[in-house]
Amino acid sequence: MSGEDLAARTCTPCQGGIPPMSEAQARGHMDEVPGWELTGDAAWLKRTFRFNNFREAFDLVRKVHDIAEAEGHHPDVCFGFGYATVTVQTHKIGGLHENDFILAAKINDAAGV
Hints:
By secondary structure, this protein is of the alpha+beta class. It has a single domain, classed as Transcriptional coactivator/pterin dehydratase (Gyrase A, domain 2), CATH 3.30.1360. 39% of the residues lie in helices and 17% in strands. It has 4 helices and 4 strands; from the N terminus they run ααββαββα. The protein has helices spanning 3-7, 23-29, 54-71, 98-111, and strands at residues 37-38, 45-50, 76-80, 83-88. It has a 4-stranded antiparallel β-sheet, covered by helices on one side. Strand 1 (37-38) and strand 2 (45-50) form a beta hairpin. Helix 3 runs antiparallel to helix 4. The longest helix is centred in the middle third of the chain and has 18 residues, at 54-71. The chain is globular and about 40 Å long. The mean pLDDT is 91.
C-alpha cells in the first residue's frame, strides 16, 4: 500500500485492549510514510517539518489540528520558528497502530510532501 492509499483511508476507533504493532510490522509500513522515523522502541512515529518562518510552521499545525479532529486521532505537536515536529502514537495501546500510519500519510499530504 502506498502513502496515497493510506491518506485516502479513515482512522478506525481504537478501544484499546489490543497489542501495538511489533517493530517488524511498523518497519514494514515505513515506505508508506516518507520522512517519518520510528523511535528507538518503535512505539512512536516522528517527523520534523522545516519552514522559512513561524507563520508557515503554524499553518501546518492548523492543518494537523483539522486532520486530527476529523480523524479522532490526536498527535503531539511542538513548533516554533521554522519547524513543526509531529509525534504520533495510539495512546490507548501504548504503541503504533495502522491509524498512526494513516494519520502520518494525511499529514504528509497536508504538508505537500
